[in-house]
Write a structure and sequence with these properties.
Blueprint: H1 2-6, H2 15-23, H3 27-49, H4 52-69, H5 79-105, H6 108-111, H7 129-140, H8 145-156, H9 161-168, H10 172-192
Helix pairs in contact: 2-3, 3-4, 3-5, 4-5, 5-9, 7-10, 8-10
Length: about 200
C-alpha cells in the first residue's frame, strides 16, 4: 500500500537514494528524510539547548538548510554526518545568541547569585532513569563548551569518535582529550550527588 503512494520509496530506502530522488524533484523523498532523521536531530538539539522552542527551531532550520543546499551535498561522506554537522552548528549559533541575550539581561541581583543550583531530589530515594537523565543534563550544562559538545555527541548521542570529529571539525586528540575531562567531571558530580 505504501509503495503505491510513494512510488519506489519505502522505509528501507537509503539516505543516498532519497537525496538523489529529492534532487530530482521528489518531495516525498525529502519528507522521508525528515521523518527518518528529525527525531535524532531533535535529540542532539535538546541535549545542547534544553529548551523545547529552541530545539524545534533548530530541527526546522536544519531541514530548511538541507533543502536549500542539497545540491552541494558531497556524496563522499555520509548524509547523516552532513546533517548532524548542520544541526550541530545551528545549536552552537543558538547557544551564542542565547548567551548574548542572557548577558544583556543580567542584573546586579542575578550577578550576586553565582552558581545557583537547581534543587535536587534526595539521593537516598529510589532514582529512576528520568532522575538520572535530569542530573546528567544539569551537570553537562556546567561543562566547558568543547567538553560539552563532544560529551553530548559521543556519550549521549552515541556517535563514534570519527563522526564526532567530522561533525565538530576537531581532530581526534582534541575530541578524546575533552571527552576524557568531560567524563571525569560528570563521574565526580554524579558520585557526589549520589546518582552513582
Amino acid at each position: 500500500m505504501e509503495s503505491s503512494i510513494t512510488g519506489n520509496i519505502h522505509k528501507g530506502t537509503s539516505d543516498e537514494k532519497l537525496v538523489d530522488m529529492t534532487i530530482h524533484g521528489n518531495t516525498l523523498a525529502f519528507r522521508m528524510l525528515i521523518e527518518k532523521h528529525s527525531g535524532y536531530v531533535a535529540g542532539i538539539a535538546s541535549r545542547f539547548l534544553l529548551s523545547h522552542e529552541d530545539t524545534r527551531d533548530v530541527v526546522q532550520d536544519t531541514f530548511i538548510r538541507i533543502w536549500k543546499h542539497l545540491g552541494s551535498y558531497d556524496k563522499r561522506s555520509l548524509f547523516t554526518t552532513w546533517l548532524y554537522s548542520i544541526a550541530f552548528n545551528l545549536c552552537l549559533d543558538k547557544l551564542r545568541i542565547n548567551r548574548r541575550r542572557m548577558e544583556i539581561s543580567l542584573t546586579e541581583e542575578h550577578m550576586n547569585e553565582p552558581g545557583r543550583k537547581a534543587e535536587t531530589e534526595n539521593p537516598s530515594q529510589n532514582m529512576d532513569s528520568r532522575t538520572i537523565s535530569r542530573a546528567i543534563s544539569m551537570y553537562s550544562e556546567k561543562l566547558a563548551t568543547v567538553q560539552r559538545q563532544v560529551f553530548v555527541l559521543r556519550d549521549l548521542q552515541d556517535l563514534p569518535v570519527d563522526e564526532v570529529c567530522r561533525i565538530t571539525g576537531y581532530d581526534t586528540d582534541k575530541v578524546k582529550s575533552n571527552l576524557y575531562h568531560a567524563r571525569k567531571f560528570m563521574r565526580e558530580k554524579l558520585l557526589k550527588g549520589g546518582y552513582l
